[in-house]
Amino acid sequence: MSFPYAPLPPLAGLEPARLDWQPDAAGGEAPHSPAFDDVYFSRHDGRAETEHVFIQGNGLPQRLAAWPAGRPFVIGETGFGTGLNMLCAWACFETHAPAQARLHLVSTEKYPLHRDDLARALAAWPDLAERAEALLAQWPEPVTGVHRLWLSPRVTLDLHLGDAAERLALLDGQVDAWFLDGFAPAKNPEMWQQALFDAMAARSRPGATFATFTCAGAVKRGLAAAGFAWRKAPGFGRKREMLVGEIASPPPDARRQATPWFTPPAVQPPRHVAVIGAGIAGASVAAALARRGIAVTLIDRFDRASLGTTHLQGALYVKLAADTNLQSRTYLAGLLHSRRWLAQLDPQQALWQPSGVLQLALDDKEQARQARFLANHPLPESVVRGLDAETASAVAGVDVGAPALDYPCAAWVKPMELCVRLAATPGVCFRQAEVAALEPGASGWTLALADGERLAADQVVIAAAVEAARFAQSEALPLQPVRGQISQLRVPEGAPRLGRVVCAGGYVPPAADGVLNFGATFGPKETDMAEREADHAANLAELERGLPALVAGLRAAGADLSPQRLTGRVGVRAASPDKSPYCGPVPDAAAWRHDYGVLAKDASRVPEIAGRHHAGLWISAAHGSRGMASAPLCAELLASRICDEPLPLEWPLVDHLHPGRRIIRDLIRGH
User: Could you give all domains of the chain from N- to C-terminal order, each with its CATH number?
Assistant: First the structure.
């Protein structure tokens, strides 16, 4: 289902900035852009310029000192450049803000620096070295979209890579203070357009401030037209004047005229949240909320908190459509997000390995599809590249006999052990129990447990996979169970070793702890948890079809590949009809059918009614077989929405994940 959004920019890699280096006033060097013939910061003293223009110009020391716990203070910036402004804002926050306050930084950048250039530029300020190291360690691939970085437990940075006006128009979030930066208007007039000022106004909170180094007439006129009041202030260095100001009443959100049902509910950051389901969806939500200082009770029927070693491996992978769509954009964002998230969570790589993933093209149809994908998506080779059979074999460590797409940034993960790690996040209390019903109240929710106990919570997140739709409030969300069985084989000495996760009809990661996992079967509408010999036979047949050289090598090394000798694990995943997850507030289905029933007669008659939701009830479900690429990002999305923060996805992608999308689709189709 599609909605009438403005078209998203192409999903592509970005051209990195080209720099030359020129002497500065202190005898060091400063980065200069030959493309714009302008400097990234003042040669006189770039750090002092940032402090004067942006930090003091927005009154940050005083405002941060008075900032309470709860939602974070949000700073927006129109040109990340070297990151100096953001690092200085972070330093100001740590100096002045109370211990429980949080800071959220949002910055756009159309020409991101190479990591080495970024390190070279920031080396000029040794006192920022620790902060610069945190930034450099998570520096994202130059791909259009939103990239979330966790700079510290209390400081988050969202890098929106692409054109500034375009990225701010796609931002789902509101800003308290703006750093209106970038190359000078005379050098870069393409950025300093009315569309930029309008996007800033639309994403501002009432009373949001701005500061900028320039006093150009076009900037003053553009800001005033967007609703900002401006005034001149003393400039820095040779610049006699600069501009500061604020916006009293931002314009109404025009994005919801076509899709009012997706209007987000008003939120009040909670003290206590109950999360139902301790798989990857629920455990990652629990950890994301706990990192924000919220007490979490994580509930599951199974005692996941004391789970031992399973030898189970899951693939962090995606299969992107040949032609860009919202689902592919979401999953690619999720892949890149999960890779950074895992590196932060487990830098020792005890629970995951950055092995990369090969997606084989075993027939002409898949080869043509992959060729079309590469033609349509000029992404960096560090994200995805096409390989011929010979190169793919060298990367895989065995003869694969087919060309492939290679995702170097993909990985394999120990999913069960990862969930145990997440459940142990400080602030998360695990409870083994079954939730029988959810009862709304005036001040939150009561969870009726199967043993008769009742548990109170301010808000609830449903993340119970295929059981997520068994509650009265969520039963309208269609979920299909999909049974899958993995086979496991103890690898003998001398057997070939994979260097990548390899996917075709099934998947097989490199062996871990001497055990090879491969599979999985695909059984729609099946829920039987019993292990089946026939499924082991099917997994073996699929492995041999995709990697005959690996199977031959295993046999030659003495592996017993009889189906009856294999062990395995069975799981039941949940899938939505359109194969995208459900992530967001749970809609009041009866209210939606009443409020939007006219769509069944005329889809162009959109009622001006905001979507009604069950207050304080959220869901993350239907992650299917790609949950490692979607669940952690959905967890951040939910935690950000619950805590009134900017979201880590563009708003059309947030709408794409909304749990109510199927209700609207069915109404429009007359179902």
Answer: 46-249 (3.40.50.150), 270-306+417-479+577-587+613-662 (3.50.50.60), 347-415+483-575 (3.30.9.10)
